[in-house]
Amino acid sequence: MTSTIVVGGFFGDEGKGKIISYLAIKDNPKIIVRGGAGPNAGHTIRDGEKIYKVRMLPSGFLNKNAKVMIGPGVVINPDVLFKEIQDFGATGRAFVDKHCGIIEQEHLSRDSKGKLKEKIGSTGSGTGPANSDRALRVLKMAKDVNSLSSLIVDVPGEVNSTIASKENVLIEGTQGTFLSLWHGTYPFVTSKDVTASGICADIGLGPKNVDEVIVVFKAYVTRVGTGPLSNELSLEEAETKGWSEFGTVTGRQRRAAEFDFDLARRAIMLNSATQISITKLDIIFPACKGKTSFEEIPEEAKTFVKNIEEKLNTPVTIIGTGPEIQDVIDRRN
Ligand code: IMP
Ligand code: MG
């Protein structure tokens, strides 16, 4: 297997960052490449004592042998990018495509007020306004920014030639299926399609060149910002269950609900999932915490996982059992 794409199955914040970091180390891909909207995404990765909050770089950066790339479909904020390259030790192995769009101050201002902020609950990262300027064909691109010149490579070219030479490429999605501009709960969505097909388009990978599509679901559903959330719990209920979380980018409290099979079934369809990853199983079944083998987890947790496999007719291959990168049950062969 050479190309694996990982996307979110609900509303983002499914824990993709941690799953991607695990795969980045375990499968040792040559390239880890990110599609998706822009620095509105936030992944939290915990490696021992270290906690990384990543918005711009691919979250697989912890594998120092891999090149990390950002596909042409993504808009980038050069300040955020340079800071992360520096802070996370990715100097010399982080690259962007010449067609990545550029977020400027004016996009940040437009994103921090008015309808986008108040009605949609946007992250204020400038991502939506930059993507709208790109649709109007007035957005600056990476090739127009001097400071980025040393980071520019042909990302689609690199990705496709690596796959053609049978080496592993890991493709990261951002946000989640129901934040997709096409398939989500419009207008309460992000400014791009973020399903697997959209992410592939972002990096220039054709539909025949993807081997595995892993859709990540958290063991419960959360949503940050506005928009519908079926069977939403009260904040008190969510706190009691330990499901109340705070956003990586915005610090806002996330709304929560139980695992939603209707949404999950649709996410499997929209992404043509070949595998499912379930994260935070330990939050629902604390006895799972830190476990790395399926045999070790309690019967009720096994039943929870098997029920998901049966109802969604897709194997659950990777299970998150704690915040650390190695807190994973890997059931792939
Ligand atoms: P925008 O993408 O910043 O315009 O935000 C649009 C909607 O998507 C808001 O409800 C955000 O909270 C949500 N959103 C955007 N990116 C993410 C993400 O990475 N995780 C979770 N929610 C997100
Ligand atoms: Mg997030």
Describe the structure.
With 333 residues, the chain is of the alpha/beta class. It has one domain: Adenylosuccinate Synthetase, subunit A, domain 1 (Adenylosuccinate Synthetase, Chain A, domain 1). The protein has eleven helices and 15 strands. A nine-stranded mixed β-sheet has the order 7-5-2-9-1-10-13-14-15, with helices on both faces. A two-stranded antiparallel sheet has the order 3-4. Strand 3 and strand 4 form a beta hairpin. Helix 3 crosses helix 5. The longest helix is centred in the last third of the chain and has 14 residues. The protein is globular and about 55 Å long. The relative contact order is 0.18. The model has no long low-confidence stretch (mean pLDDT 96). It binds inosinic acid and magnesium ion. The site of inosinic acid (IMP) has 24 residues, from helix 5.
How many structural domains? 1
Contiguous uncertain segments of 5+ residues:
none
Mean pLDDT: 96
Shape: globular
CATH level-4 homologous superfamily? Adenylosuccinate Synthetase, subunit A, domain 1
Portion in beta strands: 15-25%
Helix content: 25-40%
Layout of secondary structure:
Blueprint: E1 3-8, H1 16-26, E2 31-34, E3 43-47, E4 50-54, E5 67-70, E6 75-76, H2 78-87, E7 94-96, E8 101-102, H3 105-111, H4 114-120, H5 127-135, H6 155-164, E9 169-172, H7 196-203, E10 212-218, E11 220-223, H8 235-241, E12 255-258, H9 261-271, E13 275-279, H10 281-284, H11 299-312, E14 316-320, E15 328-330
Parallel strand pairs: 1-9, 1-10, 2-5, 2-9, 5-7, 6-8, 10-13, 13-14
Antiparallel strand pairs: 3-4, 11-12, 14-15
Helix pairs in contact: 3-5
The protein binds inosinic acid and magnesium ion.
The site of inosinic acid (IMP) has 24 residues, from helix 5.
